[in-house]
UniProtKB/TrEMBL annotation:
Species of provenance: Pristionchus pacificus
Annotated function: Central component in molecular interactions underlying sperm crawling. Forms an extensive filament system that extends from sperm villipoda, along the leading edge of the pseudopod.
UniProt name for this protein: Major sperm protein
Chain segments annotated as transmembrane: none
Any one annotated GO CC term: pseudopodium
Record keywords, A-Z: Cell projection, Cytoplasm, Cytoskeleton
UniProt gene name: WBGene00090532
Annotated compartments: Cell projection, Pseudopodium; Cytoplasm, Cytoskeleton
Primary location class: other
PANTHER family, sorted: MAJOR SPERM PROTEIN, MSP DOMAIN-CONTAINING PROTEIN-RELATED
Length: 175
């Protein structure tokens, strides 16, 4: 379903060049409305359990990819650091494109604001050059936890109407 929305923004008269306008901004917030609600704006849609607020940023170290070095006749483990850079508690979960070769431990968890976790990404032994590795990657997904929720990961946080963000980390294999 596609909707077109017209938003009017007005500006009162002011003395240009004599007033500080550097911090003036317009913020656009959006959310999915509960099923069955009339098409009438309701402020409480934005003040509920926190799931309608877009998740903030996370940081990973490394930030763009994970590199494993040969030889590949034994298991390799690489540690990455995940930091919740936002002001809200988040739930996070890792996925991988190759569950036979790649593992993540722990695979899911909860981080408070500014908290971090050390994650072990492992690569099992394989025949380098004889298996396709072009699409190997891990993906971290994260979402805000409901307000007041216990600090225990719940898969259902990712299955409702709440916003989920993703970051892909490709896997590079050096010969």
């Amino acid at each position: 379903m596609k909707w077109e929305i017209l938003i009017a923004v007005s500006c009162d008269a002011f003395a240009y060049g004599q007033e500080d306008v550097n911090n003036d901004r317009v913020t656009n917030e959006w959310t999915n409305t509960p099923d069955g609600d009339a098409k009438q704006f309701r402020r409480e849609w934005f003040q509920g359990d926190g799931m309608s607020v877009p998740p903030g940023d996370i940081a990973t170290q490394p930030g763009t990819k994970i590199v494993f070095n040969a030889p590949y006749d034994d298991k390799h483990t690489y540690h990455i650091k995940v930091t919740n850079s936002s002001a809200r508690r988040i739930g996070w979960a890792f996925k991988t494109t190759n569950m036979k070769r790649l593992g993540v431990d722990p695979a899911a968890g909860v981080l408070d604001p500014k908290e971090n976790a050390l994650i072990a990404v492992s690569c099992d032994a394989f025949a380098y050059g004889q298996e396709d590795t072009n699409n190997d990657r891990i993906t971290i997904e994260w979402t805000n936890t409901p307000d007041g929720a216990a600090k225990q990961f719940r898969r259902e946080w990712f299955q409702g109407d709440g916003m989920v963000r993703r970051k892909n980390l490709p896997i590079e294999y050096n010969p």
